[in-house]
Write a structure and sequence with these properties.
The protein has 235 residues and is of the alpha/beta class. It has six helices and nine strands. Helix 2 links the parallel strand 5 and strand 6.
Length: 235
């Protein structure tokens, strides 16, 4: 190295992690081995460095507000949140937090789906959990998505709760994490039906888009991007 010159520093990447919410009743951990695979793909495809450590928290934990993204999943109906837990979740989501929820059973109006919708109505009584429109930023935050992947094909869209121009709650019923889960030998745990490996590939793209959206918000709404994106979507 020449005198007076500094060694170039390696590029630094943002550190990111997901904290899975543990709740009472039901099945809070339907796909326990998905996290490492998702974070590997996230780091491979983007500049985001995913922490592969498995983190689990509860709504009553004091560290809740330090987590950038909460993941809530299940198959069956779970015990109602307490009023204090609902207030904590409302504050977390109002002040910049993000909740990604998924029904891994995928039966509308039953089990996890029923319980989750009831809780969201109590957490945000004046907002509605509804289908996100095709021009929502989550569909173009990294990949340009016209469909949603997953272990199963229940919906071709994501749902969410939007407050002003930000959607702090995104919900899927396609069992995305089931499409990512591998056994200790590195084999896929579940088949993706009916679309096979194409559907699994779309599941990874969907998950990465959700993560990137949670970190970037609506920057893709900038009108500078619109003509190019629209041409790509309509090709």
């Amino acid at each position: 190295m020449l005198p007076g010159r500094k060694e170039p520093r390696a590029a630094s990447f943002p550190q990111f992690w997901i904290a899975q919410l543990r709740y009472r009743g039901g099945d809070w951990d339907p796909n326990p081995r998905f996290m490492e695979t998702l974070n590997e793909e996230l780091e491979l495809r983007t500049s985001i460095k995913g922490d592969k450590e498995r983190r689990v928290t509860r709504l009553a934990e004091s560290d809740l507000f330090f987590h950038p993204l909460l993941y809530l999943a299940g198959k069956y109906e779970f015990d109602p949140f307490s009023p204090a837990e609902r207030e904590v979740l409302r504050r977390y989501l109002t002040f910049g937090g993000f909740l990604w929820a998924e029904d891994t059973l995928g039966v509308k109006g039953f089990g996890f789906d029923r319980a989750f919708r009831l809780e969201m109505k109590k957490v945000f009584p004046h907002q509605e959990l509804k289908r996100l429109p095709p021009d929502h930023s989550v569909y173009r935050s990294f990949y340009l998505l016209s469909d949603i992947g997953g272990r199963q094909k229940v919906n071709s869209y994501l749902e969410g709760i939007t407050i002003d121009h930000w959607t702090p709650v995104i919900y899927s019923q396609n069992d995305l994490s089931g499409a990512w889960e591998k056994d200790p030998l590195g084999r896929w745990v579940h088949e993706c039906v009916p679309g096979g490996e194409i559907q699994r590939a779309m599941a990874f793209k969907t998950g990465i888009n959700i993560i990137v959206y949670s970190l970037t918000g609506d920057y893709k709404k900038d009108v500078v991007h619109h003509p190019f994106i629209q041409r790509r979507l309509n090709r």
